[in-house]
From TrEMBL:
Family from the record: Belongs to the LysR transcriptional regulatory family.
Organism: Seinonella peptonophila
Residue span, HTH lysR-type domain: 1-58
Protein name listed in UniProt: DNA-binding transcriptional regulator, LysR family
Molecular function GO labels: DNA binding; DNA-binding transcription factor activity
Gene3D superfamilies referenced in this protein's UniProt entry, alphabetically: 3.40.190.290, Winged helix-like DNA-binding domain superfamily/Winged helix DNA-binding domain
Length: 290
């Protein structure tokens, strides 16, 4: 039994399909099949039930996977610690992030000092996935708009910014610089689809102000929101850091209640965090604190 067999076994268990697993592993499907067959011979039991290209763990495979996954995680942590012993010159930092103002500037600043450290940046779709990846050690850091409330997950607020209202230049509010939430409860809104983090934030703010926004158009695309506001279809909530010098709309600050979005930096204190990841975390904190 060798490490490669265990990694191949784990990938098939994750995907349940030989051909797709081979594609992700960048090997041929016959080669993958032969590797797993050898692993099963070494163990003396079949690990999968097979039906064509479909392949699923049987009871032996499910039991073995529970042993393989923590073993591979420990080996990965050992690899990271060895890299740290050798210094910061190389390694990979894995981060999951939603939009964060000036985030790319911090990465560029870090890479100026450590040019051989690589970044793996993802955007998973759910909070549950973020928690799972942090707890498994597949993610070093996570930047979210809300704290992750889970034992063993550390959360640190690193930046807050104002949420503003944007309206067409011809709108009745376009001659004002500020507005209260109770003044916009009858407006028609353009917004992101439900499930988008910014949509969830502003829906909650509206509920606290005593109304449900009348959303006439939902989209996944921020540029579409801008175009629809510009075309006078409605108004929209927006982030202050996304404002530009020549916006195609007028923006107003929301004064009552004060509407803000706070970004959280999260990591697992139960998993090993590489020296590179710790240094980058400290740089993030320092950069946004200043």
């Amino acid at each position: 039994m060798d490490l490669l067999q265990l990694k191949y076994f784990q990938k098939i268990a994750e995907i349940n399909h030989l051909t797709r697993a081979a594609q992700e592993l960048h090997i041929t499907q016959p080669s993958l099949s032969q590797t797993i067959a050898k692993l099963e011979r070494d163990l003396g039991v079949p690990l999968f039930d097979r039906q064509g290209r479909q392949i699923r763990l049987n009871k032996y495979g499910e039991f073995f996977l529970k042993k393989v996954e923590p073993a591979l995680k420990l080996l990965e942590e050992g690899r990271r610690e060895l890299i740290d012993m050798a210094g910061l010159e190389r390694g990979t930092i894995s981060i999951d992030t939603s939009f964060l103002p000036q985030f790319s500037d911090v990465i560029n600043m870090f890479r100026t000092s450590y040019p051989d450290v690589r970044f793996h940046i993802s955007q998973v779709s759910t909070k549950e996935q973020q928690v799972q990846l942090l707890e498994s050690g597949e993610l070093d850091l996570c930047i979210t708009c809300r704290p992750i409330k889970r034992t063993g997950i550390c959360n640190l607020p690193i930046l807050s910014e104002d949420i503003v209202l944007v309206v067409p230049f011809e709108h009745s509010l376009a001659d004002r610089q500020s507005v209260k939430m109770n003044e916009i409860m009858n407006e028609t809104f353009i917004h992101f689809k439900k499930g988008h983090a910014f949509r969830d934030d502003t829906d909650e703010l509206c509920q606290k102000a005593g109304f449900t926004p009348n959303i006439v158009c939902e989209t996944d695309d921020s540029k579409t929101i801008i175009e629809l506001v510009k075309s006078k279809m409605g108004v929209a909530f927006w982030l202050e850091t996304l404002l530009e010098k020549d916006n195609p709309f007028h923006h107003l600050h929301i004064t009552e209640p004060k509407c803000k979005r706070t970004y959280q930096l999260a990591w697992s204190e139960k998993r090993y965090l590489s020296l590179a990841a710790r240094r980058f975390r400290d740089l993030l904190i320092k950069s946004f604190a200043s």
